[in-house]
From TrEMBL:
Residues 35-100 form the Cupin type-2 domain. InterPro entries: Cupin_2, RmlC-like_jellyroll, RmlC_Cupin_sf. It comes from the Bacteria. This is Cupin domain-containing protein.
Length: 103
């Protein structure tokens, strides 16, 4: 892999009425994935077997973890603990980087 610079906010564009994702790094030990959510779009409640960090790159989102809602905006991040139910809903269209550590 050769070193290159990138702009996270321009690697992925919004699409009307959709959630778009792009994996930018995938290793046995974890993944880094970018997401762009149109306003009102989201992910229904689910769990993951590993801790994950969500960094909001643009916009605003409500993330619910184990029934507790958290509102995040550009520049904020949150750790979603392994095996805790969580869901996301775009308050305004937003972009995030999801870093999942598999260990």
């Amino acid at each position: 892999m050769r070193a290159e610079t990138h702009s996270l906010n321009t690697m992925l564009e919004y699409q009307d009425g959709a959630v778009v994702s792009k994996t930018i790094l995938k290793k046995n030990t974890g993944t880094v994935t970018l997401f762009a959510f149109d306003e009102g779009q989201g992910l229904s409640e689910h769990t993951a077997p590993f801790d994950a960090m969500v960094q909001v790159l643009d916009g605003e989102v409500e993330i619910t973890i184990s029934g507790t809602p958290y509102q995040l905006k550009q520049g904020d991040f949150i750790i979603m603990p392994a095996n805790e139910p969580h869901a996301l809903k775009a308050i305004r269209k937003f972009k995030m980087m999801l870093t999942m550590i598999r260990s």
